[in-house]
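Record 1 of the preview.
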Amino acid sequence: WTSEEYKAERLLPEMVELWVSHTDWYNDYAGTDYTPEELRQVFTERLATLHRWKQKAETQTIHEEIIGRITNYIQGHLFERLEIDDLVQMSRLSKCHFREVFKKITGENSAGYIQRLRLEQIAHLLLSTELTLEQITAQRTYQTQKQPF
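->
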């Protein structure tokens, strides 16, 4: 395998698929006769028991819970002033780690996430009510200034 194929940071499913792609080599080396599907099942079960992937799965779950709490808070306070430092403090992560984890979980940075939710809410109100844009933004105290997230 090349160093590019074997990266320490591979996720469990990626590592399983890497082994499956080398089923013939594995069978020759181990003296087995697994089909690719059988080898996929064997490695999925065996690798999942290793500390490395158990710890990654636990960390992923914790990050999802943290970001879930943050996104619930954002949705409940969507048209209030939302400061990155407050969100970071609520997450109990460093600012850099918060940004990285937030983007990994949501697929967006926090500012883009907030802006998208606000615009979606305004679009919904424009389509489902008789309110004008001016009335909606006045009611929602929509912040048009870009926030430094």
